[in-house]
Amino acid sequence: xxxxxxxxxxxxxxxxxxxxxxxxxxxxxxxxxxxxxxxxxxxxxxxxxxxxxxxxxxxxxxxxxxxxxxxxxxxxxxxxxxxxxxxxxxxxxxxxxxxxxxxxxxxxxxxxxxxxxxxxxxxxxxxxxxxxxxxxxxxxxxxxxxxxxxxxxxxxxxxxxxxxxxxxxxxxxxxxxxxxxxxxxxxxxxxxxxxxxxxxxxxx
Length: 204
Hints:
By secondary structure, this protein is α/β, with parallel strands linked by helices.
């Protein structure tokens, strides 16, 4: 892993605190990963929010990284939205500041990005898309709803074998304010802390 990212993870593990209530919220995800970790078909986690531009992207990245860090093999993370937009630029800046390497693979209004956390690991492919986009799995995946709007708007996620709400406050509320960078960083830290907690609980 890149040195900046290693420093970030070490600080995260030393200082992060997951509340008792959030641990209860995260337990269904722990249980389903624990149950399926040796499934020969692997585990597909699909993080869903409204625009697939902020929280679901952060969850996709940090869950994939945490699974790699704790040696949970055959797990792939995806993300999608109830509508397509584009990844918020501050999300990309935040992840870069926290140690990930990000390269744009395409141009246009909704670029595709390669997000790398280790030199020899496959990059996470990040771009905004609807949750039923062809890039995402179509069946037997675990749907994780990261915002209340998507949770309410997707009472049934077609193809999902499990549906788990783990919602976060939208950092978009700080857009174009003096606190924008700090609010996005805090959101990323919270999601990273919780994904690292989830995968630290998986017994091999």
